[in-house]
Specification:
Length: about 170
């Protein structure tokens, strides 16, 4: 008679199943400001035109070092790995300087939006201990910055997080 009561008590107060943890770090959800700008070749592009899509964002200088190349590669591959859902994700490289981008690098990443903000304060919206270039960020379809991955993420865990985001999201 008492076994179910004791079992329920122990289950409620003592045993807790391991909660689901995400790999990417959830950050305070903040709407992006100063979204006016232009592409690397000078065409006007306001990031508001990408609203309705999930954005994978790399923030860094136009001179792309080995870490930057790796991040752009992972962004491309994790997007492709989404299969039929990949159309819901756009990739954006936010340039933080006025330099030129290597054309060979751009050819390796078709569909990548290389964007330079009109206001330099744009890059300051991406929280980082040292530099925003140390992370890959996610912006939701409503234009809110909400998640960041480490600079050298585990591709499988990043892919799993993206699949969960897309599955749970009814927008974008």
């Amino acid at each position: 008679f008492m076994v179910p009561v004791v079992a329920a008590y122990l289950a409620y107060f003592g045993w807790r199943p391991a909660g689901h943890t995400n790999y990417g770090e959830l950050i305070k959800v903040t709407p992006l400001q100063y979204t006016a700008g232009a592409t690397h070749d000078g065409a006007v592009l306001n990031l508001e035109t990408l609203r309705g899509k999930w954005l994978m964002v790399h923030v860094g200088p136009s001179r792309c070092d080995a870490a930057c190349v790796q991040q752009l590669y992972l962004m491309r591959q994790t997007r492709i790995a989404q299969g039929k859902e990949q159309s819901r994700i756009e990739r954006v490289w936010v340039l933080t300087d006025a330099g030129a981008v290597d054309p060979a690098l751009l050819q390796e990443h078709p569909g990548l939006h290389v964007w330079r903000p009109a206001d330099a304060a744009f890059a300051g919206q991406f929280p980082a201990a040292q530099s925003p270039a140390d992370h890959i960020y996610m912006v939701d379809p409503l234009g809110n910055l909400m998640l960041r991955f480490p600079g050298q993420p585990d591709p499988r865990r990043m892919l799993k997080d993206l699949k969960l985001l897309l599955k749970a999201s009814q927008i974008g």
